Amino acid sequence: MSRACLLLVVAAVCLAGREAAAFNYADALDKAILFFEAQRSGKLPPGQRVAWRADSGLSDGSADGVDLAGGYYDAGDNVKFGLPMAFTVTMLSWSVIEFGDMMPARRSSFLGGIFGGGGVAQLDNARAARAVGRRLPAQGGDGDAGHPRPEDMDTPRSVYKVTPQSPGSDVAGETAAALAAASIVFRVSDPSYSAKLLDAAQLVFDFADKYRGSYSDSLSSVVCPFYCSHSYHDELLWAASWLHLASPEKKDVYLSYIGSNGHALGAEQDDFTFSWDDKRVATKGFLQSRADGLQLYKAHTDNYICSLVPGANGFQSQYTPGGLLFKEGDSNMQYVTSTAFLLLTYAKYLSSSAATVSCGSTAVSPSTLISLAKKQVDYILGANPAGMSYMVGFGARYPRHVHHRGASMPSVRDHPARIGCDEGFRYLHSPEPDRNLLAGAVVGGPDAGDAFADGRDNYAQAEPSTYTNAPLVGALAFFAGAHKIFTP
């Protein structure tokens, strides 16, 4: 983004910021990033700041003859689910691509802390796929395997794969998108690594496209009901979009793929949700703002934006009485953070092109989108009827009974003796507050009436996830950077 464009966008932020007291977005950003250190699997790196965690999952992949140690647990469990984790990597990369210049002091530590430190599961898995042939590890561990600390796991760490015979274009497509996006992040700082990531992204995309099918059909007994995929079409188009941006020498190849396959893959369908399971609206906004000849998708993107803006023609979203976007009761904050991120990226695009969103006869400006995104972020941080921050460790009042194995039990440093699978359930159901602070974790959040029950058994409201935090990193970087620029 040019300096002039940045100032236009930030000026809009300042106008929007008059509506409510600003939070310390830089502190919230630091905590949002720190959360990922608590989710690490494998050998912990030097400089690990979450001291109550220790090494775990060191033999992951050994039963299948590959080394899959490392990566991140997706939420409050001890499983490395491929589809949501790949989406997490894509969103973290997109956060750096769009708003990395607004957090320059944190960029190097962010890259080392998130993408290094044991490796991100999907990057390792994709390289492993190249080593073992035409198969891609899609999941490590079982979602129903008790309630132990990560460090105490002794249940089988099964590896579940997608293959030509048991395809998974959704998980493979998202993995390709993650690799392509990450290759852009490292293009300048580590060209060799970037090239390897891009090469792997192209290989995995070819695999996803050639052997079409959903991993929810191939691996239904283990991925469902945790992360069932509604379709693989959106992931193929999403991956092709990222490869178009990441592959200067082959950009026309992927643009041609999008043009030839877009209709069949749902590019012309209106959709109103962005999540680990559905990328259609994000893909269309991404494409029309970055790819020549695809401005036809602007109408679809505008319809999505209009659906979010109260009072606009086309408005159809639900908000709580306190102003929180509400999609559904199971981990609703994941939709809040992804929506806030999209609003900000689209506001950036509109500002750079001196454009607006057409909602019937009403023109919606970038500042309106920024204001709406800010309201959602501020609600998370404490500007809500309960006066509660839904980010653990931020502010004076936040959830104390997070649905998270490691946070709820004594750490291995305080309690070296093993805590068994069954014994772990005692901590799950305990009314005692968390033994360890899961700083930066954003929980599922309140219900449609702004009510929140702070209890570990209430996983729909009390469980955090990497894919909830990942888009929030970008949004917080935006607001932290805007505040810094306009603070004397």
Automatic annotation (TrEMBL):
Region Disordered, annotated ranges: 135-166
Biased composition (Basic and acidic residues): 144-155
Gene3D superfamilies from the UniProt entry: 1.50.10.10
PROSITE patterns: GH9_2, GH9_3
GO biological process: one example: cellulose catabolic process
This protein's record includes keyword Hydrolase: yes
Domain Glycoside hydrolase family: 25-476
Signal peptide: 1-22
Broad EC category: hydrolase
Gene Ontology MF terms in the entry: cellulase activity
Entry's EC annotation: 3.2.1.4
Active site residues according to the UniProt entry: 403, 454, 463
Family: Belongs to the glycosyl hydrolase 9 (cellulase E) family.
UniProt name for this protein: Endoglucanase
Organism the protein comes from: Oryza sativa subsp. japonica (Rice)
